[in-house]
Design goal:
DNA binding, mainly alpha
Length: 219
């Protein structure tokens, strides 16, 4: 298994670096000094001391920042990104790639668009989460209510059928509205069965409860 080997000074491609930055850089040390100068210029443009700027990018003291500005040490990329954000200059300027201190306006516009898109996505996510919570509460309340309705309807149907079984044809022939009452009981039985299937769907559950109530009123 191969392991990563850091490039040595001998393998350092100065020609590629010059093509990117220019002839002002001849080696790593000169690049380090160039970056240090630009960090200092950018910091001084903000009016902040080295210590305060260091604290803003997460350092307890200004020692590291001072070493960067003097060109003694090369700052890590993450620190350059933080410095660019704090000083308002472009990352390319700090890295010596560009002489323009001001960030590219198109980059700022893209960042703004991305930021707005993220805010919009977060807003939609919150709406979806809130809607899910409300729907869950509605389903729970509907299920609780329909269980009581189901039990009441089932008891009513059972009682009607028991009356008819105990009175035989007398119920159909001599009790006015008896046949209609039994038909309504059958409809209620069907509605109760439908309620069982619709228990997890609030819209269907509401429809079936209304249908069952209609059958009861029709009695």
């Amino acid at each position: 298994m191969s392991s990563f080997v850091a490039p040595s000074d001998e393998s350092f491609n100065i020609d590629a670096l010059r093509a990117l930055i220019g002839n002002q850089v001849s080696d790593k040390d000169s690049l380090c000094k160039l970056i240090g100068q630009r960090i200092r210029i950018a910091r001084e443009s903000t009016g902040l001391s080295g210590h305060l700027m260091a604290v803003r990018i997460g350092h307890a003291s200004g020692t590291q920042l001072s070493l960067w500005e003097m060109g003694i040490r090369m700052p890590p990329l993450w620190s350059l990104i933080l410095l660019a954000a704090e000083t308002g200059v472009s990352l390319d300027y700090l890295a010596g790639v560009s002489d323009e201190m001001a960030p590219d306006p198109s980059v700022a516009m893209r960042r703004s668009a991305v930021s707005q898109a993220r805010l919009a996505i977060d807003a939609v996510a919150r709406l979806v989460a809130d809607a899910s919570i409300r729907l869950s509460c509605e389903v729970s309340a509907a299920e609780h209510a329909w269980r009581h309705v189901r039990d009441d309807f089932a008891e009513l149907v059972t009682a009607l059928k028991r009356v008819r079984d105990q009175n035989g044809t007398l119920f159909d022939e001599h009790i006015r509205g008896g046949a209609r009452l039994l038909a309504a009981a059958d409809r209620i039985s069907t509605s109760v069965a439908n309620l069982e299937r619709a228990a997890t769907t609030p819209a269907r559950l509401r429809t079936e409860i209304q249908a069952s109530a209609g059958a009861f009123v029709a009695m």
